[in-house]
Write a structure and sequence with these properties.
The chain is of the alpha/beta class. It has 2 domains: 36 residues; 165 residues, Glutaredoxin, CATH 3.40.30.
Length: 207
Amino acid sequence: MLRHTCRSSRVQALAAALALILALARLFGGTAAAASEGAELIGTAAPDWQGLVWLEPEPRRLADLRGKVVLLRWWTDTCPFCARSAPALVELHERYADRGLVVVGALHPKPLGRPITREQARAAAERLGFEFPIALDRDWTVLRRYWLGGHRRPATSASFLIDRRGVIRHVHPGPAFHREVFDGDDAPRSDLIALQQAIERLLEESP
């Protein structure tokens, strides 16, 4: 009887250990999969911005920003995740602009093809507190060039951190990064911390 009890206890312990291992594999496997989205773009030259319509009179080119660290974020005026991420974008702009960071917001209207004027885009940017350069990607031309072309992505609101030489060094696949925790989901906060750390590393690099 004692032998049977010991064997049963060992079986239960092994079953519990196996369940824990499987749970951890699902947890860290899912995290690794999310982190690897867009990893193939790291170290590649950032595509040009031809096709963007800028809200200010003079259009901007990526080449004009060489020597700066650029954070390019796609967003839309109908997305709650973009609204949640807006304060973090504003914070990053305010904190690092003097050190050489340029935040750029590219509005891609949803659904694709929805008409949007410069005035509507400007009003949407003002509601979110954006005081950095804003452009319209009306037909998602540049978004496809950077992110969607040939891939099925989890979100369109991706962000790209581009170094002083015009090379992509960090990709956030969307849809959100912020300091708040909603519904127990801590991933957006962790993503913001990782993005901020990447920005600081690139700003410390020599121009």
